[in-house]
Design a protein that fits this description.
The complex is a heterodimer of chains A (612) and B (341). Chain A is an alpha/beta fold and 612 residues long. Chain A has 20 helices and 22 strands. The model of chain A has no long low-confidence stretch (mean pLDDT 95). In chain B, the strands form two sheets. In chain B, strands 2-1-3-4-6-5-11-7 form an eight-stranded mixed β-sheet, sandwiched between helices. Classes of the chains: A alpha/beta (612), B alpha/beta (341). Chain B: GO terms for molecular function: oxidoreductase activity, acting on the aldehyde or oxo group of donors, iron-sulfur protein as acceptor; thiamine pyrophosphate binding.
Chain lengths: 612, 341
Amino acid sequence: MAVEAEQHQNIVVRFAGDSGDGMQLTGTSFTLATALHGNNLSTFPDFPAEIRAPIGATFGVSAFQIYFGSEDVTTAGDEVEVLVAMNPAALITNLQYLVSGGLVIVDTGAFNKKNLAKAKYASNPLEDGSLGAYRVLAIDIHSQVIAAVEEFGLSHKMALRCKNMWTLGLVLWLFDRDKQSTVESLLTKFANKPDIANANVAALNAGNAYGETAELPSGIAVYKVPKAKQAPGTYRNVDGATALSWGLLAGGQLANLGILFASYPITPASNLLHTLAARKDFDVITFQAEDEIAAVCAAIGASFAGSLGVTSSAGPGIALKQEAISLAVSAELPLVVVNTQRGGPSTGLPTKTEQSDLLQAIYGRHGDTPLPVVASSHPGDCFDSAIEAVRLATKYMTPVMLLSDGYIANASEPWLIPDFDDYEAFPVSFHDKPEGFKPSLRDAETLARVWAKPGTAGLEHRIGGIEKSYDTGDISYDPDNHQKMTDTRKAKIDNIAADIPLQDVHLGNDSGKLAVVGWGSTYGAIHQAVKRSIREGLDVAHIHIRHMWPLPANLQELLSGYDNILIPEMNTGQLVKIIRAEYLIDAKALNKVSGQPFKISEIEDAIKSQLS
Amino acid sequence: MNQAINKLTLKDYTSDQEVRWCPGCGDYAILKTIQKLMPEFDQPKENQVFISGIGCSSRFPYYMNTYGFHTIHGRAPAIATGVKLANPELDVWVITGDGDALSIGGNHTLHVLRRNVDLNILLFNNEIYGLTKGQYSPTSKVGTRSPSTPQGSIDLPLSPCAVALGSGAAFVARSIDTEMKHLSAVIKIAHAHKGASFVEILQNCPIYNDGIFENIKNKKIAADFRVEIEHGQPLIFGKENTKGIRLNRETLALEVVTIGEDCPLEDVLIHDQTNLTLAQLIGAMGSTNDEGFPVAVGVIYHNPKPNYVDDLFIQRERLRQDKDKGNLNALLRSGHTWEVA
């Protein structure tokens, strides 16, 4: 084919199809090939709550977006340049993301009357000229794949299942990626079903060869995306849920504690349970409890007995756990509570992302129950923020809320793998001396209550949720004592501000016209928007907060150095409320609650309007 | 260490806390029985842990000089499960009440029994909410007048033992607060049982539900209202031991018979504590409006089955045989990685 290659520094590709079409597998396979190719990347799996929606239905469309290139890539990209649409429903729901002049690859075999009707197309968009603004690569992938796998004698239905691999083969060719990593993972995945494995590999090869040999329409060429400059070291792709699970295991080792991870299945948090359940070679026990409350309670019981209790859920489940979390605050036991936030309220948008549980994390309990809140900002950061949550929980004998969300839990990025030997250990020492022991003993510096675990002779004692005497730990209804205990619990958490890093400026100057202040998974979009704005000469900085409570000791002073503060959040304005309340700073909000992450351009526009 | 254990007495198990139950409460008698019994178990004192929820009965751990955790309403079985998972060596007791275990905590009671977590669960059943000042409970008899049911309760009560059996409990027994000998004997068997052992203790609340178990407890009349069951022995009761329980093989229901009159002695039902169907019939006796039936006290069901904690660790050990102990650096580098020079 004598077509010139297109050069791109960065590019966004989106795969869309039925929820049963295997788009997530296609996307992750393409991601691996792209990482091995040497590009920076970020992904965004975007799937419905329905596991297998009726075939061809618009509400059953599952998509996977990847942004990759030679620059630093921290979001899944704003505008799609290549869209793969496996059926009319995928086309009609995803065409909105495609730039004008972008390439759309469609399977004409799926554009039949029935599917067009299900997608509510009055006429076939491949024939009525409505795709005129785009470049269309229309291939009868149905027929191609049937022919490619004929020799394996699969049923018609099973043969068609290979069409995602045929399509992937074509797209790998289009971006000049090696297909070997996909071949290997197919052979591993279907090791027990050699016919299926071989058919999928044949489909992949056929799609790839189609690109090489077929006469493609004019204007369609191989995309050349240069390799990124990356820091030297060993890399892997990691998604947030995996990194967070590994961070918990790491935290357990650094604290020298066994972990009980007790959880109840809920989207999008369940992957933590799955990942850890498969790691029994580590000192972790997973317990699928009967409900959210039992899960947090089992974790608290484990902490009482000398393990690190960890529980995990999404917003609705965290709400159920809050009474028990207050018990852990009162009893002063360590506990890590992971909230993989999703769109709310109620069942809300279970598979979509949101940051609307910040206030619940900081304030959402009964009584005065302060506790530290830590937020992860991107997939790789989930590893380190989980370690930090374990450190704070064990050092200060307190529950810690660790916030992730549906976006970073599922999104993946290349991760420069750290050397675990470089991490500083924070081993827990259990109290074991009967002389002078009282359950109310406190560390003079941290104010942490003593941890004396059952099984230790001579330290038999009782704890509970009733207010306890500051001096003895016995039940006390004394008014002055309750004041003192409430003050002590608050002071213990407030003091943590002295034990966390000072807030740094991620990008830009440490004073100036505007600081964009973010937390959690808005990191990538804010980073890109601020980077682009600085490049355009605007006076703007990016500050990204990990320790949501207590806030870093220098944050007020730092923020006071900017004329304006802009806080983008995927909620109706929660951090902005806290900043205003704590510091009396007139911060401005930028809010989005569509279930989709911020686009870079949305934040860029807000920066421009703040500075105009 | 073992010598030291043998020397322990009731006093060693009495904490320095002032007991705060109402005068005459049945909980005092249960506390005394258990404090006296504890030294008999072959356990270092520091391994004994009492976990409770909320309610009058749940204050119990404060008075035991062992490890104890007074938690939140209904959740003691879940917290105790976590304790046991973290350290299976511990001898873990759950102290709960009828509201705590069967109303707000019903789900946890069901699942802790189904999983058969190795815990000793003592449910103090006084058929009333005491600590919140006398509302009816899920075990109150129909017609119970209380502040929340001034015209009498209208919903059917649960039988704790029937619930436990329905949940898959492998050990279910019933005893009485003030009968130290019987209660001690039942708790000893319960404690020896590996897995979740469930003991319902009929307990008098002198303030809000006084005398509710009078028929069963009053020595003058109790023989007609209770049957003391024992594995392999016939179900005979009554002042003169003339009444019996027979299984009607046509209706598959129990019936009260008079021995020698309408039923020969050999037709009286023999208690088989391993028979779940019989246990369900015997456990429910006297709990609903079937007047004339005695309440069964003693071990109703005892049929060991695999327990969750043992199986969990067996599974883990089996898996670990083929694997190296978790190496974090290796984990981080598992799967596809690549080098950038």
